[in-house]
Amino acid sequence: MTAFLVRRLLAAAAVLLIVAAVVYGLFYLMPGDPASLACGKRCDAAELAQVRQTMGLNRPVYEQFWTFISSIFAGHAYDNGVGTVWCSAPCLGYSFQSDEPVTQLLTQALPVDVSLVAGAAVLWLSLGIGFGLFAAMRPNGLRDKATTFVGLAFGSVPIFILALLLLLLFCVWWQVLPFPTFVPFTQNVGQWAENLLLPWFAIALTFAGNYLRLTRAGVLEALGQDHIRTLRAYGYTERRIVARHAVRGALPTVATIAAMDIGGVLAGAVFTESMFGLPGLGKLMVDSASTIDLPVITGVTLLASFLIIVANTVADLLYAVLDPRVRIS
Amino acid sequence: MTSTPILTVEDLRISFGAVNALNGLSLELEPGRALGLVGESGSGKSAAALSLLGLHRGTGAQVGGRILLHPRPTGAGEIAEPVDINTADDETLRRIRGRELAMIFQEPLTSLDPYHRVGDQIAGVHRLHFRSGPDEARARAAQALEQVGIDARSKYRAYPHEFSGGMRQRALIAMALVLEPRVLVADEPTTALDVTVQAQILQLLGRLREEIGLSLILISHDLAVVGGNVDDVLVLKSGDEVERGPVREVLTRPQHAYTKDLLNAIPRLDAELPTRIAASAEPLLKVTDLSVVFPSHRGSAATTAVDGVSLELLNGESLGVVGESGSGKSTLGRSIVRLQKPTSGRIEFAGRDLGSWRGKALRDHRRDLQLIFQDPASSLNPRRSIGDSIAEPLIVHGEKDRDRLRAAVDGMLERVGLDDSLYHRYPHQLSGGQRQRAAIARALILRPRLVVCDEPVSALDVTTQAQVVKLLRELREEFELTLVFIAHDLAVVRQVSDRIAVMNRGRIVELLPAAGLHEAQDPYTRALLSAVPELPVA
């Protein structure tokens, strides 16, 4: 177990290093000059050179990359033209655009996605597993077909359409919910939830269909197995068999996919965030990409990769927890 | 013997759509008695067993006739008056299941819930029927485990995958016992198990009958298994009863030809051996100090599957390899056809080192070395027709002409006793015996010199088993094959082998001529011999 985690940690470090290198590499292959973007339209050659100097863009790529990596661990002193600013470890540099520390941008954005995923995952798992079990109780019956169809329908609608529809219904026509803005959990729990209700449902409804199908298929497969026959032969009710025993066969798969989906949403729900105007990692990612803001792009990408690696590791651990035959070493 | 019966079955009929599985079975089971239901697959015996617990409900099978369950004379139990299981409401049926009639199945490996601890599963059954508290249920489950010879202290919290097949079947019997049912329906309870384990389970069932007066319905394709463990036998064929009577009577003076066939098919240790085919003096296969070690994987310790085995096989000879599961016999077989890389040691085939072949040379030599597997249902590609599967080895080895391929396959089909109309059928459309014949055809179509048969008949009914064994004997002569015949049942092995190697824990503990089995010295060999179920002598 410890050996497993240590190995995963080392692998994660290697992956993050490669990701950072690829982002840097891509950055220099792309057209566009971040210095002139940052400098603005009326910018003469001298000013541009000054900006380059400040941004560190005049140094060789490998040197910039090394500075970037080393400052994560050791911090880095930046010369902003007026004086020196100390960026303490873990330092991911400063945004070319806003001059804010990247770590600060990330720590502002991450709570949005954590809030998004916390509610959405609870919803989509309850909806997906619940209706999956409901559908599996009488396979191919009316309620099975109806639930499967509805799940598929929601899953097929692009999330920005669904988001628009929800906004239209709840905020414009019925006016029962406010247009979402992000209120931190620590500030006001009620408002936090109220504002996130629509984004939660948008994500959950899109995802739940998948979980419904996974649960239904896993349960139906389990229902044909010998150990379920044993339960029937000992007088267990069908309802109990489905809800307590057959569902166990579906859970490892559901948990694995869930961990990865949660990782995916955490790492930036681009559409949801922009539809509901939430300042999360997805928005940060889009904004930084459109302004070629290298430190922010790298920072967001690294954090996203890290979250996905963590999610995968959690998925593997869950697999072992949910299936006693799987051992982790 | 006129005590009140527990169960009265009248004119039980079962059909699956247009297929009739059972055509009017009537029987009566008295307390403490044991009844054997015997027949080949397709005889309707399992369908009958499932109907006794109403387990066909919701499956689309039509069940007719009456299955009357009488209440306990003491007034205890779930019912106060006779109940017809066919017409009982779901709730009544649910309360009867396990509590009055308990069932154990052919598949002990998969019949326990893999996600829950063994002890908890047994306790769960107790709680369900007796509405007992967790402590009492746990105590009763532990008691039931002890009753079947499982140490509850150390094994209560184990998961099914930590148990061997025999242990799992014991646990399932414990699950039945915890409810103190009157009847145990055992559907092929030992077919998936080694002979030695089979003997232990049968002994356990006998002991429980004696100790707690359990009635038993024992279902098997093998009259020898049923023989020593029941009072009466009922022989079924294609859904019809062909014979019934006290077990001694039926076994020693069978009236019906079908019963006689079943009896003759049983592999016996005292059966006359076929005349031995003279093997040439030159060795074809020489195994020297072979070891196979599986490195530790995912937390499990390294296992030495084969531990310093040496043996020599003459050209045209047939060697039987016997042992329980885990003895290393399959690993040895796979190493001989080079599907398993040995950890150390040397295998020479026709004077050359098997390990030295690589790439194309190895592929060319594969033609000489073939393997027949235990379960043809999974070793034949389900998405490929039988004919295509048999032709494939020829195609792999370069035959392209369609007519020649078809002729070769047709010839081979005929040779293994299959009609050439089966060419375009798929494995699931064939019976177990037909599938194994097809697998043999596929192995022989390249005219190999050495064939390793890994438990080729242990998934088959005794009658089919006898036919396939006979076929292998004929083919061995006709194709001048050298055979390695791997099985857990000594009585089967000795029918096809000139010499028999007995394996235990990766080592060959004894190597005997097939004719000299009774002179076996090694205690392990003697244990295997005594585990073979014996028929009462006429």
Gist?
The complex is a heterodimer of chains A (329) and B (538). Chain A has 329 residues and is mostly helical. Chain A has helices at residues 2-29, 34-39, 45-55, 61-74, 102-137, 142-156, 159-173, 189-223, 226-233, 238-266, 270-276, 281-290, 294-322, and strands spanning 76-79, 84-87.
Explain what the structure shows.
Chain B: Belongs to the ABC transporter superfamily. The complex is a heterodimer of chains A (329) and B (538). With 329 residues, chain A is mostly helical. Chain A folds into two domains: 2-87, no CATH class; 102-322, MetI-like (MetI-like fold), CATH 1.10.3720. Chain A has helices spanning 2-29, 34-39, 45-55, 61-74, 102-137, 142-156, 159-173, 189-223, 226-233, 238-266, 270-276, 281-290, 294-322; strands at residues 76-79, 84-87. A two-stranded antiparallel sheet of chain A has the order 1-2. In chain A, a hairpin with a 4-residue loop joins strand 1 (76-79) and strand 2 (84-87). The longest helix of chain A has 36 residues, at 102-137. The N and C termini of chain A lie close together (5 Å). In chain A, 36% of the residues are buried. With 538 residues, chain B is α/β, with parallel strands linked by helices. Chain B folds into two domains: 7-108 and 182-262, 3-Layer(aba) Sandwich (Rossmann fold); 283-295 and 302-531, Rossmann fold. Helix content of chain B is 35%, strand content 24%. Chain B contains 19 helices and 20 strands. Chain B has a six-stranded mixed beta sheet with strand order 6-7-8-3-9-10, sandwiched between helices. Chain B is globular, with a radius of gyration of 25 Å. At the A-B interface, helix 9 and helix 10 of A face helix 2 and helix 3 of B.
